[in-house]
Amino acid sequence: MSITTINPSKRAAGASTPSRGGDLVALYPRRERVIAVTGGKGGVGKSTIAVNLAVAYADRGAKTLAVDADFGMADLNLLLGVAPQKNLLDVIGGTRIEDALVSCHGISLLPAANGSYSLESMSDKMRHRAFHAIESLSADFDTLIIDVAAGIGANQTEFAGAAADVVVIVTPEALSLADAYACLKVLFLRQGLRRAYVVPNRVRNKQEGEEVFSRLQSLVSRFLDLELVCLPSVPIDARFNSAAAAGIPVVKAYPDSSAARAIRGIARKLDAVAVPDSRAQATGSFWRELLAMESPEQRKAQK
């Protein structure tokens, strides 16, 4: 299985060809995107990459909403340096979702709650009440970045399965590779995932990133009919920690750092290789996918 490249014959009608600068392609600031960032294992840098990716798109003009879908152990607000007064649990309880949004660093954040057992173990009724509330924002944003919690439970698989693009973060550690494979397997079997994007994170150099991708690809190609696409790797960079401690995304705090350049490279590459059909009306498709997960009984209970 080889790394996917752009096939011009499959480009959507009327779509422009991205201009190239070096080995990177320009972003499409106004196209629709729904990107779920996951990884299977906690501690691989998933939230850091998700929040920086959201800011990178916003810096190019996208109307971006970051959704903290790590419901019980939320930390996007910490990475963004904000202290929300309301969160998704309040929204489920009846607070207007607009009152829970926080604007910061050019994006809007829908925060979850850190240490909330109620959110982490929410019932189907609570989960779909949350889905309905989030759906009301569909006209306000063209780019959604969803930080999916580690693990393979219902919350994680339903959010990731509804997204147009699934990005899996993996590090050189053997446990990270194993858990990334487990995550992909569940999404393949339960959500029908057929294509996923891989970001090798915390690598020493480009070669190590390629090796990490190759190891994961080898596992997947043996057991799953799933296409993997390699995105630019993210190097070990102490400025991630410095930026996080300051509550500022690294693409803002250190825009010329290797870390920030890698994040912008991921955004460009993802826009270049994403299947056009999956990106057409992506935000609307995301809401429909979430709401379609309800059973008739659950839809009746919402009325």
Say how many strands there are: 11
SSE order, one letter for each helix or strand: EEEHEHHEEHHEHEHEHEEHHHHHH
Radius of gyration: 18 Å
Q: How does the overall form come out from the CA principal axes?
A: globular
CATH topology of one domain: Rossmann fold
Number of discrete helical segments:
14
Strand content: 15-25%
Major beta sheet summary: 9 strands, mixed
- Judged by helices, strands and strand pairing, the structural class is alpha/beta
pLDDT under 50 segments (min length 5)?
1-26, 295-303
Mean pLDDT: 82
Give the name of the CATH architecture of one domain.
3-Layer(aba) Sandwich
What gap, in angstroms, lies between the N and C termini?
A: 47 Å
CATH class of one domain: Alpha Beta
Task: Estimate percent helicity.
Answer: 40-55%
By CATH, the superfamily of one domain comes out as P-loop containing nucleotide triphosphate hydrolases
Question: Can you describe what's shown?
Answer:
This protein has 303 residues and is α/β, with parallel strands linked by helices. The protein has a domain at 29-165 and 237-302: Rossmann fold. It contains 14 helices and 11 strands. The protein has helices at 46-59, 76-80, 88-92, 117-120, 124-135, 154-162, 174-191, 206-223, 239-246, 250-253, 258-273, 276-279, 282-292, 296-302; strands at 20-21, 24-25, 33-38, 64-69, 102-104, 107-110, 143-148, 165-170, 195-203, 227-230, 234-235. The strands form 2 sheets. Strands 3, 4, 5, 6, 7, 8, 9, 10 and 11 form a 9-stranded mixed sheet that branches. Strands 1-2 form a two-stranded antiparallel sheet. Helix 1 (46-59) packs across helix 11. The longest helix is centred in the middle third of the chain and has 18 residues, at 174-191. The chain is globular.
